[in-house]
Amino acid sequence: MTVHNESYEPTKNSISAATTNRLPSKIEETPGTSISPVVYASFAPTELPQPEGFASIDDHIRQQEEDPFRRAALKEARKEMSGYLYPEGNSIASLRMGKGWSQHQLAEAMNTSQPQIARIESGRLDPQLSTLIKLSEALGVGIGGICQILGAEK
């Protein structure tokens, strides 16, 4: 987010042609008021260049999982972390991590995308029946269990 704080005095020349016909022909201060600073925020995302030699975390994990030894170690680490992060064990993320899977691996098992899994796990997506069936099959939990977990997360 970029915040701009600058003085601005509108003139006929500073207003774009597209807005000129919507404004009064003469811009004046209203009696009893003054022209004051304008503060506005711009929420346009800025793309930062990635430093040379750096990789995204997703790319790094995928690269590590190409090695069978590291893949097994990551799987065991996810299983262990599942108990710490989700002690109740009643979430889609806990079921996924209990299998030692990343979101990407669950997405592959369901023939969907990792962002779709992230939205389901965060509760930002109310999955369709076909997605619930795929979740059930991939995680080895009955569809009733999946529905119960998703209902409890809301």
Q: Helical percent range? A: 40-55%
SSE string, helices as H and strands as E: EHEHHHHHHH
Strand content: 5-15%
> What is the general shape?
extended
Poorly predicted regions: 1-5, 12-21
Walk across the major sheet and give the strand order: 1-2
Q: Mind summarizing the main beta sheet? A: 2 strands, antiparallel
Task: Please tally the β strands and state the result.
Answer: 2
Number of helices: 8
- Give the rounded overall mean pLDDT: 80
Cα end-to-end separation: 30 Å
Class by helix and strand content?
mainly alpha
Whole-angstrom Rg: 26 Å
Q: How would you describe this structure in keywords?
A:
single chain; 154 residues; mainly alpha; two-stranded antiparallel sheet; extended; disordered N terminus
Q: Mind explaining what this structure looks like?
A:
- By secondary structure, the protein is mostly helical.
- The chain contains 8 helices and 2 strands; from the N terminus they run βαβααααααα.
- It has a two-stranded antiparallel ribbon with strand order 1-2.
- The longest helix is centred in the middle third of the chain and has 18 residues.
- The two termini are 30 Å apart.
Quick overview:
The protein is built from eight helices and two strands. It has 154 residues and is mainly alpha-helical.
Topology:
Elements: E1 2-6, H1 17-20, E2 38-42, H2 57-64, H3 68-85, H4 92-98, H5 103-110, H6 114-122, H7 129-139, H8 143-153
Antiparallel strand pairs: 1-2
Helix pairs in contact: 3-4, 5-6, 7-8
